[in-house]
Amino acid sequence: MADFPKPIGVDATGYELLTEAALTLLAQYPGLDGREILFEDLKKNSGLAFSAGNGALVMTERKTITGKIWQTCQYPFFVIYRTASTQERQKLRIQTFLDSLGKWLCGEPAEITKGRYEKLSGYPDLSQGRKITRVTRLNSYALEPSADGVQDWILPVTVQYTNEIEPIRKGV
To answer: pLDDT digit string (tens) for 75-99?
Structure first.
């Protein structure tokens, strides 16, 4: 079994910055067709949202003799598509939508409508020494439907970014 790198810390300020950047980025997806992806806010039977349960994680850290710190970090989140539909055709549309969104977030050409492809041109600029370097995704999947037939579909996404921290200067 493969060993996955474990986080060595959290980036609390990065969580705030990346949450705002993810919300901005998701709102720009050209396949929304008037829908909105909200932060951790879903209606009882339907909706689109994203959630960042683990926060922003520091994966590696290097420090120079002058005190400058370079961190590689991750901001994992999930896009959730909730539906009460039991129709197979609707479920296939949801999976296609999430897969297309995932491709677009990763900078791959994504089919928005039949024969029309769009590609993300760049990631949002971050502040305070942070920069998005890459976005990756896993395949979307459905959770078990609830007793009333409501089902959540999940797209796991990870934003990888760097954080450059200047040392605190004494006597300033």
So the answer is: 999 999 999 888 889 889 999 999 9
Give start and end residues of each alpha helix (H) in the chain: 12-27, 88-105
Q: How far apart are CA 36 and CA 131, in angstroms?
A: 25
Nearest by Cα to 101 from 79, 129, 73 = 79
Residue bearing tokens 């919300």 = 23
In 3D, which of 140, 134, 141 has the Cα closest to residue 120?
134
Distance, in Å, from the CA atom of 148 to the CA atom of 136, rounded to the nearest integer, reads 33
Q: Report percent pLDDT > 90 for the chain.
A: 73
Share the mean pLDDT of the chain.
91
User: DSSP code of 84?
Assistant: -
Look up the pTM and report it: 0.89
* Cβ neighbourhood burial of 27 (10 Å; 0-12, 13-18, 19+): exposed
Q: Beta-carbon neighbour count of residue 41 at 10 Å?
A: 12
